[in-house]
């Protein structure tokens, strides 16, 4: 059993994860339109991952006998200046998500809800990875400094990314 406050906050987070998915799909569309098919593919994998995050939270609320109520997904930005600013925006977004996950952890801790703290620990670790991987991409873009060959190398590398279902979904 979890508190109503935490159930509502996780329900809200499900919407935030779906919004993240939509944002990354939009980034995929924008980078594709600029000719970066590999980077567009990387963002499409992000899109899949964010949907998986929402699914993990839905499964948890169901396991706790809570009803999930879906709400509209707000519109997202559709255009970025260049690849570097797209990744910089991605980092800002993930830092915001980290704060939201930390807020869920705060509620679970105040509730002395050990099951939810265990559940949320996966997301805490995931956010460290998310922020680190996009920070690396920003570094690579800055090193390429707009050089076409450098950007094409990044595009090729990111085009090879494979989607893997996150561990909490694999365990089911
Ligand atoms: Fe669901 Fe990118 O955090």
Q: Would you give an account of this structure?
A:
By secondary structure, the protein is an all-alpha fold. The chain has a single domain (4-167), classed as Up-down Bundle (Ferritin). It has six helices and no strands. The protein has helices spanning 4-33, 37-63, 83-110, 114-144, 148-159, 167-170. α2 runs parallel beside α5 (148-159) and α3 packs antiparallel against α4 (114-144). The longest helix has 31 residues, at 114-144. The mean pLDDT is 97. MU-OXO-diiron binds at residues 17, 20, 50, 53, 94, 97, 130.
Q: Architecture, CATH level 2?
A: Up-down Bundle
Helix content: over 70%
CATH class descriptor: Mainly Alpha
What is the CATH superfamily? Ferritin, core subunit, four-helix bundle
Quick description:
It is built from six helices and no strands. It has a single domain, classed as Ferritin (Up-down Bundle), CATH 1.20.1260. It has helices at 4-33, 37-63, 83-110, 114-144, 148-159, 167-170.
């Amino acid at each position: 059993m979890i508190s109503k406050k935490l159930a509502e906050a996780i329900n809200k987070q499900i919407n935030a994860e779906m919004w993240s998915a939509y944002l990354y799909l939009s980034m995929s569309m924008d980078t594709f339109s600029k000719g970066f098919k590999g980077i567009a593919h990387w963002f499409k994998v992000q899109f899949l991952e964010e949907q998986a995050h929402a699914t993990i939270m839905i499964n948890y609320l169901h396991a706790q006998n809570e009803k999930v109520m879906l709400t509209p997904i707000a519109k997202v930005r559709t255009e970025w200046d260049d690849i570097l600013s797209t990744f910089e925006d991605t980092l800002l977004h993930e830092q915001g998500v980290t704060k939201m996950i930390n807020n869920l952890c705060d509620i679970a801790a105040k509730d002395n809800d050990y099951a939810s703290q265990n559940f949320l620990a996966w997301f805490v670790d995931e956010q460290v990875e998310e922020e680190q991987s996009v920070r690396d991409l920003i570094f690579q873009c800055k090193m390429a400094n707009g050089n076409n060959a450098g950007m094409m190398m990044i595009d090729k590398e990111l085009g090879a990314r494979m989607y893997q279902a996150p561990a909490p979904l694999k365990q089911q």
